[in-house]
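Usage example:
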Amino acid sequence: MSASATPLAVEYVRILPELVLSIFGMAVMVLDPLIDERRNQRTLGNIALLGSLAAIIATLYQSQYPGPGFWNMVNVDAFSVFFHFLVTTVTAIVILTSYDYMEVQQIRAGEYYGLILFGAVGMCLMSSAVELVLIFIALEISSISTYILAGFRRRAAISSEASLKYFLLGSFATAFFLYGVALMFGATGSTSISVISQVLRSGQIPVLAYAGIALMFVGLGFKVAAAPFHIWTPDVYEGAPSPVVGFMSTAPKAAVFAVLLRIMFEANAPGRLWLIWVTAALSMTLGNIGALVQDNVKRLLAYSSIAHAGYLLVAFAALPSGGIPAAMFYTASYAAMNVGAFAVVSHFASAGERYVTLEDYSGLGRRSPLLAATLTIFLLSLIGIPITGGFFAKFYVFSAALQANLVGLVIIGVLNSAIGAYYYLRIIVMMYMREPREEAPVPAAPIGLRAALTLTVFATIYLGILPGGVLEYASRSAAELMRQ
Amino acid sequence: MLHLVLFLIFGVVCVAGAVNLLVQSHPINSALSLVVVMGSLAGEYLLLGAEFVAAIQVIVYAGAIMVLFVFVIMLLNAGAEERTRGSRIAVLFGIPGLLVGSILLAWVLVARSGSQAVPVGALPGPPREIAMLLFHDFLLPFEVTSVLVLIAIMGAVVLAARPEAIEHTKKEG
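Running the assembly step on the lines above writes:
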């Protein structure tokens, strides 16, 4: 803890990516009315993209100055840098996929890009915050911006419905989290994770701490769409604009998983094992069974994201040494494949999101071979086929769970992966083995989307062929996290 | 002893106000019950030795925010709500769950944490100490809140603007 009355310069470096994102977010808002209407959307998109790229650079710069900042509110370590990098990269890719969607759907660009950048501020802060009050505020920033983004298709009633549902249920979940924080403060006398950790490790655990952990877990479980707090997911994903779904199914989730990792492992949460066991098993099973009967691709991917939250939670039941790196690797590879999948879905859906049912995908392999091939790679990765990131993600999670002797959970997980393969393959079969209903070729992907898809395909394959580098980094940051 | 009695009285009034808020069908009645909740909470804060927070509670919540609530309700001219019978699952599981939860919590608070109880006035109460907390120890969360407020304003603008209005400004621009 720094004893000075004002923060040191290096402490500002420790929140540099957040500062950069905020400044660019405000720039987008201020410039919005000043720019000529016709070029408005693209220019603002460029500024936002520049902002997210600057934030990536700021993250890399920041990684050279690890340590606490602002009186132990934030802590920059390898762990936080990993999630900062993930969130800012996802932000950049989502902005790339949004360019043409915005024009087709006639969405106001100023608020849209502003909210994405400000949302990223919250998500970045969540991954470096080590104090529950700051985590709460950051969580709210990220949540509220996604509530609003979900309602951006103003002409579609379904979008407003999604926004309102998400907002009401999300606020309810936030109240649970806040109550959990209050009980935790009551039990340990502090909201700082390191102090809580000391209290919980020093002999007798206060009974209130169990209640605190359980309530915080309810709040965070809602945000990552883990069963039984998942009911909102399909409706919201169906109604929200597709690029936004790509964003909110990955970046905020990654940030919440970072918070969960800190609370569960660093604070050595009591009662962690059975809490996670039940939630993970339920999420995997309900997610996969729900996905089997969906005809709408966005709803299908919504259920798939519930199932994937379940696989990821399996890692939380494992030992810290294996569980933390496995969860980090899973978050990264899931982000790559899911953002990519939604980018394809959003391009194919075209104006007004007309083409979103499974039937519409029939014959896509003939109408647009490249787009279909890209989607196939993402879907294979979601199944967990070797040479894609999804394979190693599942492999590491399940082997971490086996090390912790969670045989039952691993059996449930593997069975669920087999069920999952069915509905992902159904989309692939539709694309390649059915006659197209319309002969017209799908319009070629614009440059921004092409760049985004190239990046995500590259990341998916890279994580599937050379997972060693990322895993080693994740293990190192896990060791650092547990040493504190 | 007087302290405990006052604390209980304020507590009962607060919970009664909260229940009444939910039961009333006319929004104005609910809003006025909320004033009661906020006011009695301020009393509780005062009894706990947090004078400053109590004053802020009265000025900001019971005062400013409630006036805003009442104004909005009157501007919208909101009538009595229609009542549905509610979800059966919520009644079946919710009420027993609530009872079990609150009994459990009360038991924990009464039976288990007696030794760790914090005496009244031990936590920061005067404005000076609050200021030290807010502008020193919790400076970053305090500043970050401004981003939160900014997002809330943007959200209000986005959701309140009609789609036609967007079209209109487009043509003019």
